[in-house]
Automatic annotation (TrEMBL):
UniProt-listed Gene3D superfamilies: 1.20.1050.10, Glutaredoxin
Pfam families, sorted: GST_N_2 (PF13409)
Native source species: Bordetella genomosp. 7
Protein's UniProt keywords contain Transferase: yes
Protein name: Glutathione S-transferase
Chain ranges of the GST N-terminal domain: 1-83
SUPFAM superfamilies in the record: GST C-terminal domain-like, Thioredoxin-like
Lineage: superkingdom: Bacteria
Entry's Gene Ontology molecular function annotations: transferase activity
Keyword field: Transferase
Coiled coil: none
Amino acid sequence: MSTYELIGSRGCGSAIIEMALDLAAIPYTVTDLPYLKPGPGRDRLLRLNATGQVPTLVLPGGEVMTESAAMVLHISDVAPGAGLVPPSDSTDRQRFWHLLMRIVGAVYPTFTYADEPAKWTTPGDPAELLRTRVHTRRAELWQEIDRLAGAPHALGRRFSALDLYISVMIRWRPGPAWFKENCPALYAIAEQAAAQPDVGKVLARHFDPPLE
């Protein structure tokens, strides 16, 4: 199997795809770059991905993939034995789709708007109001997902790519301490995922200190 190239940044969603590639035993290289910093790295990233976002995945034939969920589904197609996505005849399949789309379609965009609210509104109080409301909405979404989650994995007894998303995203705002208090099921899922060597190795590379 030829080598994939994963373009990413430490602490970003590219960690999810790095884990997935490891679990699938797919050969790959990592190109780490500060994806928002002007320079040759960002120039190349923009040529490959017009949004300038990471992760960006370059397939062995030169095709470029964007959007982490699409990458996860592709990796599962290449290596279905990795267990990233429940098989089509599994009763867990529908719950997987529901939770994956909730995470990538509802939670993920909150970072786009809350990280730089001035890009989406006028300066001053309106920007801060947007940030506050988006943070509140994100917390509501996580608590909804927490109620839907199983144990010890997001799908109950079945490990999946959902566990990778959770293990990374609880390290983002509002942070592990908030999740431990307000979303204990998700916090426990992240701990369980981090205990897997391939997952723990990537988390250690991307985040310091580890989950506490």
